[in-house]
Amino acid sequence: MTGNVLITLGRLPKALDLARGFADIGWRVFVAEPFKRHLAGASRSVVRSHRVAAPADGTARYLDDLSRVIAAERIDLVLPVSEETPHVAFLRERLPKATTLFTMPPDSVLRLHDKHGFARRAAAFGLDAPETHALGDPAAAALARTGPVVVKPVHSCSGRGVRILAAGADLPSPRPGAPAIVQRFVPGDEYSSCSIAHAGRISSTVVYRAVQKSGSVAVAFERVEHAAIEDWIRRFVAAEGWTGFIAFDVIVDAAGVPWGIECNPRATSGLHFWRRDEIARAVLDPAHAPRLRPETRLQQFYPALTETQMSLFRRGPFASNLRRLLTTRDVTWESRDPLPFLTMTATSWPIIRLAMARGVPFGEVATLDVGWYQPPALASLPAGRNP
């Protein structure tokens, strides 16, 4: 089976793996991206890139642009990649009958993208999740008096806006149009995941942890085996009946109990641990269990290089960072397709420039123009309407 696939973001290494994977099995790969130049666009695996409106400039315009690309290129499969997924979910009612969208309907995606909605969902399924309340709810203030809490926006990514407050500390005032939650702080080890699922059945799950961060974003990561986390994820995905990529952030406490703290209804960096052609086969075939790459540790070379250089001046663990940098495989480099790696600085310049202007790490601004950061009232839109 071959066809035409549209990847709805091209700037991230995840998109490049998806593009290479589908090209490896004979599919024609197209990319829709708000930036004129982007990482995946430099790959020989991509037939053509289409510049589209950024969702931040209006979801309706973005969906119009995607619909035109789908019609022009006769797309068989639409594959969301990252923070644009909640917007892309609204394409469902616009698609030709022969075109498949690899994610859930918008109400399901937005329910889990909403950090409060996810916490309620996990509790309803009988799964361990920290007590969570809306900022401004008297229950949130009561929770903050009993122990440390985490305050974070309802819609955010890459750790933006997250604060940990000591027991009894004053909570911030609620801000109109910027809903937030107050969540009981769970001490323990933090893990992330990435799963491929069809109708509630998981094809495969990768559990991994950060070994080097740029700000709050992992730039080097290590795959681990953790049966309790995988079981938590399996139960959640089955109860939700999920189809598509889905990912979780989990804290494992001192007793070994996994606590689901956030859900990302999309792919994460854990995707890199599968063989890239196997990802494509698992997306297309619910019965296919994708094989893993042999490496258990991977990195994004350029941000890892930056962090290694900075550790020299900050009196950080420079020697260990340098050793890891020189011995860990990069997720982008491919000798048969070298241009994405070699031109990454140029293709990523719009993000680099914004990060420099704001004085924040690359990962914290990489998806600002495509993420869903709107009030939760929009989450109730029916699938056929555009926000």
Q: Tell me, briefly, the overall form.
A: globular
Radius of gyration: 20 Å
Distance between the termini: 35 Å
**Computed structural class:** alpha/beta
**Biggest sheet: strands, sense, closure?**
7 strands, mixed
| Low-pLDDT windows of residues | 375-387
* Succession of helices and strands: EHEEHEHEHHEHEEEEEEHEEHEHHEHHH
How much helix, percentage-wise, in residues? 25-40%
Q: Superfamily at the CATH H level of one domain?
A: ATP-grasp fold, B domain
Q: Tell me the total number of β-strands.
A: 16
Name the CATH class of one domain: Alpha Beta
Task: Outline the structure in words.
By secondary structure, the chain is an alpha/beta fold. Among the domains are: 131-184; 189-332, D-amino Acid Aminotransferase, Chain A, domain 1. 32% of the residues lie in helices and 23% in strands. The chain has helices at 13-24, 59-73, 85-88, 106-113, 115-124, 138-146, 227-240, 276-284, 301-313, 318-327, 339-342, 344-347, 349-358; strands at 4-7, 28-33, 46-51, 77-79, 100-101, 132-134, 149-153, 163-165, 180-184, 189-198, 201-214, 217-224, 244-252, 258-264, 297-299, 329-330. Helix 1 (13-24) crosses helix 8 (276-284) and helix 9 (301-313) runs antiparallel to helix 10 (318-327). The longest helix is centred in the N-terminal third of the chain and has 15 residues, at 59-73. The chain is globular, with a radius of gyration of 20 Å.
